Here is the input.
Amino acid sequence: MRDVSVIGIGQTPVLENWEKSLRHLAADAVLAAMHDAGIGQADALYVGNMLSGEIAGQEHLGALIADFVGLRGIEAFKIEAACASGAAAVRMGYMAVAGGLADVVIAVGVEKMTDETGDIVAGGLALAADGDYEVLHGLSFVAINAMLMRRYMYAYEIQHKEFANFAICAHQNAVHNPNARFHSPLTLEQFERAPMIAAPISLMDSSPIGDGAAAVVLCPSEQARAFSSKLVRIAASTVATDSLSLHDRNDPLRLQAVEYSARKAYDQAGIRPDDIDFFEVHDAFSVMAALSLEASGFAEPGKGTFLARGGEIFLHGRIPIATMGGLKGRGHPVGATGVYQVVEAVQQLRGECGPNQLAAPRYGMAQNIGGSGATVVTHILEAGE
Amino acid sequence: MRDVSVIGIGQTPVLENWEKSLRHLAADAVLAAMHDAGIGQADALYVGNMLSGEIAGQEHLGALIADFVGLRGIEAFKIEAACASGAAAVRMGYMAVAGGLADVVIAVGVEKMTDETGDIVAGGLALAADGDYEVLHGLSFVAINAMLMRRYMYAYEIQHKEFANFAICAHQNAVHNPNARFHSPLTLEQFERAPMIAAPISLMDSSPIGDGAAAVVLCPSEQARAFSSKLVRIAASTVATDSLSLHDRNDPLRLQAVEYSARKAYDQAGIRPDDIDFFEVHDAFSVMAALSLEASGFAEPGKGTFLARGGEIFLHGRIPIATMGGLKGRGHPVGATGVYQVVEAVQQLRGECGPNQLAAPRYGMAQNIGGSGATVVTHILEAGE
Here is the structure.
C-alpha cells in the first residue's frame, strides 16, 4: 500500500444557502480544492452525501458533479453512510490512492438541506436510524440521542450543565471561522436557558443542519511534493460499524464502533491517544462528544464531561476538540461534515487557522459518526516536515 | 495491485416480494454467497442500492446489513450510482481487495421497490436523470429513453419491430433461470401488440422493476484456491461517466461512457471485443441494448439491432447477451442489477447455467449502466483453469 497525502482542500461556508443548488455547492468546494492543489485533472471523484434523493431531488451525484466541475468521463460514485458519508468518501479516495488504482482523487462531501421543511429534514435524518426497530415506533433521530443522553446522565450521575462547555467551546472556536454557521460566543447562562428539543437535549446540545460542501484532493505522498509545500499525510484511515439500533448493543454507553475504529487508527499510525494534538470530534449532540472522547481513549467511561468542565477541550487545553467550531459551531450539513472535519484538520496541520491556530500540532484526528454510533470513520492526519 | 477472484455468489429470485423486507433480501443473498464461498467472516461489505431512502424508508444500509448478517463491526458503506449502483459496489470491493486494503470482501446489491405505488417508483427512478435540466421539465426516466429511441430510429432508419429480438431473446433465456421474474417465452406477435409506455418504447421494450438482491465474495486470486475449485477471476474492472443530461452530449447516440469504460476494460484484460464469449448487457430498454453493443465494440454505430435481427445475440449466436434473461427477463431491481449481472457471468464461467449453459466460455463481460449512460461500470470475468 502507498502512503497518501492531502494536497488540496476546499470548502463553502455553512449557511441556509438559497442562492446555490447542490451541484453548485459541490462544485465550489471541488474547484477550490483543485485550485489549492494546483491540478486541472483527476482520476476519480467520490461524493459523500446522505439525503440528496430525499431533499434535493437528485441521486446519481457522482457523474453529475464530475461533469459539472469539468471532469466528465472520470470514475465517480456517491457514498452513503448516514452522517458519516463525508468521511466515507474520503476513505474511498484513500483506498483508491493507497491501493494504486488511482493517482489523483477528489473526495467531496455535500448536503443541501434547507430547501425543505423541518418535517421532511427530520424524516430524512431518521433514515440513519433503524427504520423497523426505532423509527417505526415514533422515534426521531434527536429522540434516540435524547434517550442516550438521559441514560448517560443517570448512569454516571451527571447534571445537564456539565455538558455546557462542549457548546461553549464549539461556539467560541467558530467565531473566527469564516465558514462557520455561527459567529457568536455562547455564555453558560444562554446554555442553561436554551429551550428543550427532546429532553434532556436542548437547542444548545444540538448541532444545526445547513447547506455546505467541503473537498479534499489526495495523491500518493511520494508525488505530493510536486503539488504542495505544506504536506499533510493520512497516517490512518479506518472504519468500524455497530448495530443501528441502540437497544441492540451490549452497552449503549460504550460506542463500540468508535472504540474499534480509533484503536485501528492508532495501530495504523503507530501512535497512542496521548500523541493526538487535537480531535475533530463528531459533536452532533453534546452527549456524542462525551461518548466519543471516552471511546477514543481520551477519558475513562463516564468521564468525558470532565474534560469539558476542566477546560481541557479548549484550544489551550490537553485535547482541543472542534477547533474550527465542530458540528455545533461550524454547522452539520450531514453528508458534508466528515470532509469539513478533515479539511479543518489539514488547516491546523498547515498552520492556517488564524486566531484558532494550535502551536505546531503534529497529529490531528478527525472522526465522523453515522447514526447513533453505527458507522464510524476515523482519520489521523500528520503534518509533513 | 493484486489479482482478484470471485469465490462466492448468491442471489434471491426477482419478484414482487411482499414477504421480505430490504434487509432480509440482502441477507439472503449475502448468506448464500458466504455459504458458497465457505466463509464465516469478511473484512468489508459494500452495498449497492439506489432508492432505499426514497422507497424503503431506510438509509445507512452498510452498517444495517453488516449487522443483520452477523458481521457487526466490519467496514461497510452504501454506494450509489443510479442503476449502476450494484456494479459500483463490486467495483469498490475490487478496489479494496486489489489494493491490499482487505482480503475478503462482500459486495451486495439490493433493491426493494414494489412496496410503493408506481408514481413513487417512477419519481425515484427519475432521480437518475438531471433534476434541474430534465426532470423539472416533466420528463420521466422512460420518456428520456423514449427520446433516445426515437432519435435512434430516425437517424438509422430502424423500424420498431427490429428491436423485437432483444426482448424475445431475454424472455427465452429467462425461462430456465429460477431467479428470473418472467418464465414465459415471448413471440414476435406479442412484441408487436404490446402497449406503448412512452412511444416508441412499448411494454416489451422495457425491463420490469422488482425486489431482489445478489451478492459476490471477492478475495485475492492467490488465496482463492483455498475457497473454491471453480475460480473466476476479475480480468478488468472499470468505470466511466458522462453528462446526466442527454441534451448535453456531443452525440446522444454514442454512449461515450460505455465506449470509454469498455475500452479501458479490454486494455486491462489485454483482450479485444472478439475475445468476449458473452455479454451481460444493460438492457433496461431495448434501445440501450443496441447502443451498448455498438459502444462496446460489438457492432458499428447504428448496427446494434442487426445483431438482434441476425440472431447473433441468442445463446448459439456470435455474441450471446443477457444469458440468464437480462434486465428484461430476469428483472431490474435497480441497485441490485449490476451484481446479478456479475453473478450470472460467474455462473456461466463455472458452467452452472443448466439449459442456458454456453460451451466452455472463457471471457464474460458484465456492463451496468446508470441513468441514460451517465455512469458505466464494466467488469470482464475470466474462467479459471
In short: The mean pLDDT of chain A is 97. Chain A touches chain B through 61 residues (CB under 8 Å). The CA atoms of residues 145 and 372 of chain A lie 7 Å apart.
